[in-house]
Amino acid sequence: MALRASFVPHKIPAFPGSQRGSHRVSMASTVHPPSVDVKNVKKPFAPPREVHVQVTHSMPPEKQEIFNSLQTWAEQNILVLLKPVEKCWQPSDFLPDPASEGFQEQVKELRERSKELPDDYFVVLVGDMITEEALPTYQTMINTLDGVRDDTGASLTPWAIWTRAWTAEENRHGDLLNKYLYLSGRVDMKQIERTTQYLIGSGMDPRTENNPYLGFIYTSFQERATFISHGNTARLAKEHGDMKLAQICGTIASDEKRHETAYTKIIEKLFEIDPDGTVQCLADMMRKKITMPAHLMYDGHDDNLFEHFSAVAQRLGIYTAKDYADILEFLVARWEVEKLTGLSGEGRKAQDYVCGLPPRIRRLEERAQARATKKASAVPFSWIYGREIML
Ligand SMILES: [Fe+2]
Ligand SMILES: [Fe+2]
């Protein structure tokens, strides 16, 4: 199949009801919806989006056969990593029970504990929760992948069974964090809900090209990234004395770890069957950079909301550029990329590139950090009623 590319035109979109200032491009390639002429509100919905060439169906069709032939393997190695529903935790296990006599007392205790947590912590927890809440986007993204998508919505291939059950497990994450945040009374739920609606409407652009090699490299990276960040929100909650919230975040982190195990296993198998193709896909994803799933985040106010949220997460040590380099280093070791032999010229170039990348990222990051520290500033976050937070 020929590589198809289409260009998303950089036009000024319309966005009914938006009250914002002038339209502009942030982060070089992300376009946010513009302000709208109030008299002319019947404009079509146009969400923030990336402006770059969108490549589709980059995996040669003969490689789809690999995924067909791996169905029994997936059943025996991937589906076993799912937990039976009856053995899964549910959000209600960690929240005040509204049917119990002590409900009000439990809510009061939750609110007392959450008072110990600072505003900047809440900004990161909200951003993490919104990222989880945009789950419809991630299920859609996985179902764009050739050879593994759920063709009917109830397909019986192990790939489709995995994706639905993975989604169902993930669905508890946003649900639990949302209910905790709602009960805490510390955040502006309406602004948060708006941000989630904007984000799901915007989708994401991970540049995985309908290609399951790229798609599962992306999900391997992301599951580990969320394992790390939820682990860090757990650690900080504990430091601030909220043991219940620490337990919530830690429990979510352990799900992410299990999902990481599944996705990295798929890529490990691809390295075994097709080392040359897989290492080139890994290099391709890393050259394009792994964009975070919520990179099109917007709350109706802040054009650079995702960058601001990321800066606070970086400052608090919840998810940092060092983590990004560490994840890559971990995956390179996990897949034994350095030991690959018999590669083509292109394959060897890709191998050298990814193996040398983590120290390069760290060096660049140290310089960027030094610059950022010099011009530290505070910005308001609508999620906490416009209070300002240092970046
Ligand atoms: Fe999650
Ligand atoms: Fe996850």
TrEMBL record:
Pfam families: FA_desaturase_2. It is found in: Plastid, Chloroplast. Its cofactor is Fe(2+); Fe cation. Fe cation 1 binds at residues 132, 170, 173, 256. Pathway: Lipid metabolism; fatty acid metabolism. It comes from the Eukaryota. It is an enzyme of class 1 (oxidoreductase). Its main location: plastid. Binds 2 Fe(2+) ions per subunit. SUPFAM superfamilies: Ferritin-like. Its EC number is 1.14.19.-. InterPro entries: FADS-2_CS, Fatty_acid_desaturase-2, Ferritin-like_SF, RNR-like. GO terms for cellular component: chloroplast stroma. Keywords: Chloroplast, Fatty acid biosynthesis, Fatty acid metabolism, Iron, Lipid biosynthesis, Lipid metabolism, Metal-binding, Oxidoreductase, Plastid, Transit peptide. One of its GO terms (molecular function) is stearoyl-[ACP] desaturase activity. Fe cation 2 binds at residues 170, 223, 256, 259. One of its GO terms (biological process) is fatty acid biosynthetic process. Introduction of a cis double bond between carbons of the acyl chain. PANTHER family: ACYL- ACYL-CARRIER-PROTEIN DESATURASE-RELATED (PTHR31155), STEAROYL-[ACYL-CARRIER-PROTEIN] 9-DESATURASE 5, CHLOROPLASTIC (PTHR31155:SF27). Belongs to the fatty acid desaturase type 2 family. Homodimer. This is Acyl-[acyl-carrier-protein] desaturase. It comes from Handroanthus impetiginosus.
